[in-house]
Amino acid sequence: MGKTGLRRTAALLLFVALLFLSGCEKKQPAQETGLLVGFAQIGSESGWRIGNTRSIQEAAERRGIRLMTADANQMQEKEISAIRSFIAYNVDVIVFVPIVEDGWENVLQEAKKAGIPVILSDRQVADTLDPSLYSAYVGADFHREGVLAAEFLLRKTAELPPDTPVRIVQLTGTEFSSPALQREQGFLETLERDSRFVLLDSVSGDFLKSKGKEGMKELLRRHEGEIDVLFSHNDAMAYGAIEAMEEAGLRPGQDILIISVDGEQEAIDLLRAGKINCVVECTPMLGDLVMDLAEALAAGKDVPPVTYPEETLFTEDDDLSALPPRGY
Ligand code: GZL
């Protein structure tokens, strides 16, 4: 058996051990083809994330791309180990979701040294990282999502008396992750030009429903009777916050306005029910965009450094009757 064969056998044993430990599975596409892609996903913390994984896997399967999927269970060190196993297995392309912006330099240097192109899917790394260490980013413009959330609030409060304070609390996503950092930045930058808007407090809900509920309970305890608006960095945390508000005898969407991000089916249903006022879309359906780039990179072609999917927002003023099922 040649050196490559030995390397792939050894790496396969390492990868299978890692998959076994992290409860992952290797997807077998309909028909095996040449391209082998290693995909490191961060977990299954929200309906959004589950939809994202499905989108990547189905896009690979449709194209006959062999996909090795590793689930990091929200742990960066597991994600780094998975990337290392992809390098050892000498995959053609690595796709991963940077759970946080920092801590990727060493492993991406190793991928570069191995000559394996890397695609950032869904989340970004710090812009201080050497951009030659990855080939492309496919995912949302998180800063714009924050701006869209704030612009809805500006419209919603335009008719209030000019000196009426609008007191805001935030449920933030995973600390140091690009969606959390940039959604907050876009939201606050847009509102800071109007002194009526006051950010009372923020609590991290880590993009989880359970922590969103805990966080909202804490915010209600700290600021009882003072909160006008909740900006939740994702739908899952907003669901938890709605439970906390209703348990406190409050009417979500009326006593406290709710602006959320993602656009899951459940959030659209809550929007229709008047319990959420605005949902900024952040599509998880990135599979085809990612696999287009993977195939191009494997063929030695140049690819755009940034690819944003089409995205919109949904508000209480929209006619949602014709909106097709969200699929996540
Ligand atoms: C955003 C994505 C976020 C979603 C959350 O692109 O990384 O992670 O907004 C998910 O629902 O947990």
What features would you describe in this structure?
By secondary structure, the protein is α/β, with parallel strands linked by helices. It folds into 2 domains: 165 residues, Response regulator (Rossmann fold); 141 residues, Response regulator (Rossmann fold, 3-Layer(aba) Sandwich), CATH 3.40.50.2300. 41% of the residues lie in helices and 18% in strands. The strands form 2 sheets. It has a 7-stranded mixed β-sheet with strand order 1-3-2-4-5-6-12, with helices on both faces. It has a 6-stranded mixed β-sheet with strand order 8-7-9-10-11-13, with helices on both faces. α2 packs across α10, α5 runs parallel beside α6 and α7 packs across α8. It is elongated. The termini are far apart. About 4% of the residues have low confidence.
Question: Characteristics of this structure?
Answer:
328 residues; alpha/beta; Rossmann fold; 2 domains; six-stranded mixed sheet; 13 strands; 18% strand; binds beta-D-galactofuranose
Overall form: elongated
Low-confidence stretches: 18-30
Radius of gyration: 21 Å
CATH structural fold name of the largest domain: Rossmann fold
What is the rounded distance between the termini? 45 Å
Task: Give the arrangement of secondary structure elements.
Elements: H1 3-21, E1 26-27, E2 36-41, H2 47-62, E3 66-71, H3 76-88, E4 93-96, H4 105-113, E5 118-121, E6 136-138, H5 142-156, E7 166-172, H6 178-191, E8 197-204, H7 209-222, E9 229-232, H8 235-247, E10 257-262, H9 265-272, E11 278-281, H10 287-298, E12 306-307, E13 313-315
Parallel strand pairs: 2-3, 2-4, 4-5, 5-6, 6-12, 7-8, 7-9, 9-10, 10-11
Antiparallel strand pairs: 1-3, 11-13
Helix pairs in contact: 1-3, 2-10, 5-6, 7-8
The structure holds beta-D-galactofuranose.
